[in-house]
Write a structure and sequence with these properties.
The chain is mostly helical. It is 66% helix and 0% strand. The chain contains two helices and no strands. The protein starts with 12 loop residues before the first helix and ends in a 16-residue tail after the last helix.
């Protein structure tokens, strides 16, 4: 049983409870944010459109961060080279 009494038990239940609560909070924010994005797409109130804008911006930030991490991992394993900045197009088009 998980106790929320703030005492660290021998099995580490308090740490697990905090981690679980954090994951549930992130999941709830994700679901609410997604619902607001859908509602805003259908012409919801201004506050919903504001929440949807924040969700879109955070989503773009996460996506860009994941792309950078993926590229860095590929570079470190030698699977791809450093980009020359032309999008991989060698003929200059």
């Amino acid at each position: 049983m998980i106790a929320f009494d703030g005492v660290v038990h021998a099995s580490g239940e308090t740490g697990n409870a905090v981690f679980t609560a954090l994951l549930v909070a992130v999941l709830a924010l994700t679901v609410v944010g997604s619902a607001c994005a859908v509602w805003a797409g259908r012409g919801g109130p201004r506050w919903v459109q504001g929440v949807a804008s924040v969700v879109r911006v955070v989503g773009e930030m996460v996506r860009e961060n994941e792309k950078k991490r993926f590229r860095k991992a590929l570079r470190s394993t030698g699977r791809i080279r450093e980009s020359s900045g032309n999008g991989g197009n060698s003929d200059g088009d």
